[in-house]
């Protein structure tokens, strides 16, 4: 018998990142007639608003395909919803919280990510809400382990690409994380953090890089004039990075055999752009693709060195940079497999960027 929570609804977890705010909301489905009667109008209106819309304002999105149904949390059964919006739209979210009298229901909101610290006073002054701030890496790990444990029983949360070095036969396959430790967890958001995880409570941040999803989007905005992540990815999917990058074969005329470097490997990202003639011949799509390949390869390269150093063979990539970004996932899978001669497995998770928010929700329900 699971313990009942005596925490009042609504149940939220929030992760306020440098680019996106991620929100998870638990919608109870087992409300008794008695509860229904006692439920205040504010709570009903929040539930109706969140569950009957898939878009909020101009930029808020509910990722319907990620919704987890018939979940039991703290003895209550319901659905878990996943919502995101750009961090620069946080004031509009706070205004909505104020309009819907959110503070009359809840005095504290569990939040993680840098924004939980940066915007704490805005939550207080604009929405009369207290934030319970949580460490983002603790939340991330707790969220990954929890979602993997509840989803795997139904369909697989974790997956990998089989035959990543063969584009014609590269297929996505489910993977069970049943005995996950040790694992390298690579969180690709605006920047990148790499964690070596030995158990749920024993992990260290090995290193990171400032060249992450924010770098990809920032450079694409500068180089191509695009303004959204989706637009940048769409351009990248139509471009050819080899027109922008200098390859080993551009320098050697073929492979650099002595050190096993194939002619197709990138010797210098954007290296062809020092030539005016080549600059004039590339498209914005080529530039977007080269930016994606540069950032992704760099993350792959640093990850590989960390895996070698820490003696860990399983690498799990998460974070919103991978949302709708199959190009980067396949590149990472390819790079890990090729350069490690099949020793390293690149794993991915369906709920990419939401694990921190899930970890915050779990802390609300089971305060440590």
From TrEMBL:
Q: Which UniProt keywords apply?
A: ATP-binding, Coenzyme A biosynthesis, Cytoplasm, Kinase, Nucleotide-binding, Phosphoprotein, Transferase
The EC designation for this entry is: 2.7.1.33
Among Gene3D superfamilies, the record links this protein to: 3.30.420.40, 3.30.420.510
* Catalyzed reactions per annotation: (R)-pantothenate + ATP = (R)-4'-phosphopantothenate + ADP + H(+)
Gene Ontology terms: cellular component: cytosol; nucleus
Known Pfam families for this protein?
A: Fumble
Q: In which pathway does it act?
A: Cofactor biosynthesis; coenzyme A biosynthesis; CoA from (R)-pantothenate: step 1/5
Q: Does the keyword Transferase apply?
A: yes
One GO biological-process annotation of the entry reads:
coenzyme A biosynthetic process
Gene Ontology MF: a single term: pantothenate kinase activity
* Domain of life assignment: Eukaryota
Subcellular location per UniProt equals: Cytoplasm
Query: What's the subunit arrangement here?
Result: Homodimer.
As for family, the record states:
Belongs to the type II pantothenate kinase family.
The protein depicted here goes by the name pantothenate kinase
The organism is Anabas testudineus
Q: Which gene encodes it?
A: PANK2
